[in-house]
Amino acid sequence: MSGQTHILLVDDEATLREPLAEYLVKQGFRVQQAGDASQARSVMNAFNFDIVLLDIMMPGEDGLSFCRHVRETTGTPVIFISAKGEELERIIGLELGADDYVTKPFSPRELVARIKVVLRRTNGGNGVKSGSGAIYQFSGWTLKTDQRSLVDSEGVAVPLSSGEYQMLLALLSRAGQVLNRDQLLDITQGREAHAFDRAVDNQISRLRRKIEADPKNPEIVKTVWGGGYVLAGDVRTL
Amino acid sequence: MKRFLPNSLIGQLLALVAFTLLIAQGINVALLYQGAQNQKMVEASASAVARIAWEAERINERGFRERRYRRDGSLRIRRNRPSTTSQSAIEDGQTRLPSVEERAARAFDNLGITSLSVQAARVDKLPANMRNSVIGLGRERQRLRAIAYRKMPHKIDGFIIMSAQIGEGRWLNIASVIRDRNPRLARTLIFQTAVIYLILLIPLIWLGRYISRPLKALTKGAEDFRPGASDPIAESGPPDTKQLIAAFNRMNDRVGAMLNEKNVMLGAIGHDLRTPLAALRVRVESVEDEEERDRMIAGIDDMDRTLDDILSLARLGRSKEAAEPTDISALIETVADEFTDMGAAVSFTRSGRTIANIRATLIRRALRNLIGNAVKYGEEAAVSVDKDGDKLVIHVDDNGPGIAEDQIEAMFEPFARAEISRNRATGGSGLGLTLARAIMRDHGGDVTLQNRAEGGLRASLMLSLG
Lengths: 238, 466
Description:
The complex is a heterodimer of chains A (about 240) and B (about 475). Chain A has about 240 residues and is of the alpha/beta class. Chain A has eight helices and eleven strands. In chain A, the strands form three sheets. Chain A has a five-stranded parallel sheet, sandwiched between helices. In chain A, strands 8-7-6-11 form a four-stranded antiparallel sheet, with no helix packed on it. In chain A, about 40% of the residues are buried. Helix content of chain B is about 50%, strand content about 15%. The interface of A and B includes residues 16, 154, 158 and 159 of A.
């Protein structure tokens, strides 16, 4: 990416939009603001953006509809910013092709961290794209990314923490590829920055307890001595 | 007794009709029976009267001869003829028939026969002195002799003995068979009742269904009632029922509209409070003093959580999330890990899979609230899972001071807090337990609190596995 990251911030509430834009500028981003979807459309015609921060509930055209428009025209990554926090709305947002989602009130630092993760994923080309709605099948398990749900062969859902989910998704999308701790941290680190290698090991062992028949002798997520972790076995992507 | 009663409308209707019908038929049969009884007495006594009258006339012509003896000493009377005696043949202890006597006396009067007195009695067995003076036996005579007058053929229901005094010391005595005329009354009753009942059955069942089917639909509609999402129930059945269903449908609409209004309002409150909160949260980042900033952030987070709890509580029961089979152990583990990551002492020993049909987001929240309380008031939390029949119980035990017994139920009231946490430092919204209980009840379970014998508090989340 060349120079500053260019952000389009779309929110009808000036009381939030203005201080947030100010904060993002302070963090070294270039920010354009739009108060509603039609304004955002015209700004999008005038500039190229690296990422769109989008409020869902807006008068006139709402954020979901505008997100669809962005997806269809430019493919610019989108992060939803919304006061709606119910899990299902979150899923709908991700299904529509948003790359991430923060709920008001959010920590601005967390937002910045998420922006960076999303950009790294999309620019790196090998990023985990959580909003793709992909379904992975491996060793009897099914991971549906649009619902963030892991279901076994009998249809029983096994709840995952978001850390475990990110870890599993990272391994699945690079099945057969050995990932060291730094790489895993890099791919998955979104919410809080786990600065320690131990955090990765911890997430992996928790994940194993949930999906391995015998967590002591893992068959699915294998440890590569001195290297890191790899997802063994066949993975089918639907 | 009660459990033998059918509990459906049709069943009760049929049972009631069957019962009433049986009583009516019973009365009917009793009347018939009495009529038949009278009839057979009248028949038997009429023949006796006729025979005595005939004999009396003969005596008037030929004179009264008291006894004729055969050579062997027995009475020489031809069968079927009244015996002539100086005393009445009726003995003490025999059942007298006053109505028969009265009627016979009247009959003799009408026939122009002078009778000083008439006596009649009913006997089951023919007395020996009357065996040559029996009328009405017909073909049974032979059999009757063969069994020595002891047992009666079943068509014979005893005898009427009639003695008429036609002069001083002149009695004419005759026994007349009482024919059993209605041996099949009980069978007739049952048969008749069955026929009437069968004929009534079809319209009754039709009527029952006509009434009960729309009621059943209404019951089901009320049970499956999901405000705004349920289709109106078809108006059918009798006019009363139709009105009821129409009223129910209108109520359904009103409730749906009210709840929708509430949801829109809650959404608006959530949105309108969260947006300024978010703006505040962003501005707080520019506060230089780190300690001050952290305190402000904590305050904003606290407000956010309270808002969240209030909105969740208000939205409960209208969750759009579908219940699906979920591994409860994995869910508990996920929540326990969250707390461990924040440095809290939460232990959970996983023992195999436990599957229940739940809305995972909500149960996770309930669990989070209870473990959060345990950690807050009891330093550490030990989580365990217990299966009790078709019930699943998740225990969250802590080592805190517990709660006074009389305060336990009050803890579930919104905004109630244990005495020790009045200070804001350990705050929380005060909705945690209320919300947890509401969530579990929404799942057909419950939350209870209990002081542990070894100290500390045990919170139990109950969940039905069925």
